[in-house]
């Protein structure tokens, strides 16, 4: 476990020392500032606009960080041959994968927390009062974080065997596909061909269902997040991430370094 | 118990995009290195030296064959606690300082904080990087990176150390320091296995060498054993020869080089006394007589031909 922690902390340190990260955070905070402006020209629905735009910004920029850092996690180490020194030490390849994931997970946790602070400041500004954060907003942020972890695991998985550009395309494609999984299934059912229905169902079950994690529209309208959804999403994310990381470790275990 | 025992180690790489062909980088390599030896892996580019080291470090997987390191299978993660490894032209995390990088490496061996601090400080001093310890690695020169690489290879005080081209990128002083370091490691009872292109380094450091070419083992043993059949001439240095003496010596010697007011003669053993008599008879000044031992460079030229001779960089 100490080795995993060492690799995770080093990955976190790498991200923290990367200027790209700060650019993304600044953009996210700027977008939240823009949300205030939009809120001010939307009489009566200021909070709705800020919640929608703010949480969307947290999702979008978090996803950008998860993908752009995630796709390089393994590939960059192989390409730059920094892995040689690491894997010659008593480090199992699975430990390396887990350490990398945890490191980026920690980075995303800190980023999401920072962006959440910006989000609540913007919200308090338009509400003209400071209050305890609404639990449903916290739940929405938690779900975003789970979705980002899932995207990280996918980016890491693709990073084990493909180039950064392809990994980014695959991960983003799965995020979009997973966000539209319900629609794809419905589309399959609307067509009367049985194989189209089967294909729709297969896609629905195979791709990670990112829509489950998106409760932004509901919480913006003031709807509470059901307690059952909290553990359901947590269990789903844990299971999916576990499977993806296991597959990543298996692929990476058998790779010859160049 | 041997420190390294390699049996029939073979590595094939697929080549080509559509039609995959196999390229054999290492072909049934079998050798043993005893504990406490300084062992050299020598050979031209593409000989299989780096492939051998990468296989032993689990960075690539063998097509066939196996190896034992310190009596354990090389695939056993735990045996790597007792190993050190410097890759060829090492690359490290550019965002870390030398001290942070070494501390990170020490963490991977589960060392406690106080032990890490002591060991890192000790190694930074040993490789001459104390002043640059807190500078980011992206600002390091090639030679400084090589020194950091050596330090990380020793962070766990390993019993068996693998060094892939340890002299690469180092200036003459740096090379001397690495040579001294290897000798200190041997004196401390460690086993060192290194690959090199710098043949004089192998000659001065190695107890035994393995000579590889195109993945095959061409020679294995002490350098003297490999080269002894080639000791058959002497080099004679003569100072301020008269034109008559120079003329006479040119007739006797197999090779003559003039530099300043000195002549360097290469003389076959059977003609040596005749040359010495000639110098004495004509009142010449004899400066030195040295036996010419065939070098590894000669060996490579003779065995593999000029096209496959390794780069003879920096021989001192």
Kindly describe this structure.
The complex is a heterodimer of chains A (258) and B (316). Chain A is mainly alpha-helical and 258 residues long. Chain A has one domain (2-253). Helix content of chain A is 79%, strand content 0%. Chain A has helices at 2-16, 19-40, 46-70, 75-79, 83-87, 93-127, 135-159, 164-179, 181-190, 194-206, 216-220, 227-253. With 316 residues, chain B is an alpha/beta fold. Helix content of chain B is 32%, strand content 29%. In chain B, the strands form three sheets. Chain B has a six-stranded mixed β-sheet with strand order 6-7-8-3-9-10, with helices on both faces. In chain B, a hairpin with a 2-residue loop joins β9 and β10. In chain B, α2 (98-108) packs across α3 and α8 (243-252) packs antiparallel against α9. The longest helix of chain B is centred in the middle third of the chain and has 16 residues, at 172-187.
Uncertain residue ranges of chain B: 308-316
The largest contact between protein chains, plus residue counts on each side, is: A-B, 25 and 30 residues
Global structural class of chain A: mainly alpha
| Coarse shape of chain A | globular
- Percentage of β-strand residues of chain A: under 5%
- In sequence order, what are the helices and strands of chain B, one letter per element? EEEHEEEHHHEHEHEEHEHEEHEH
Oligomer, anyone?
A: heterodimer
**How many distinct helices of chain A?**
12
- Distance, first to last CA of chain A: 28 Å
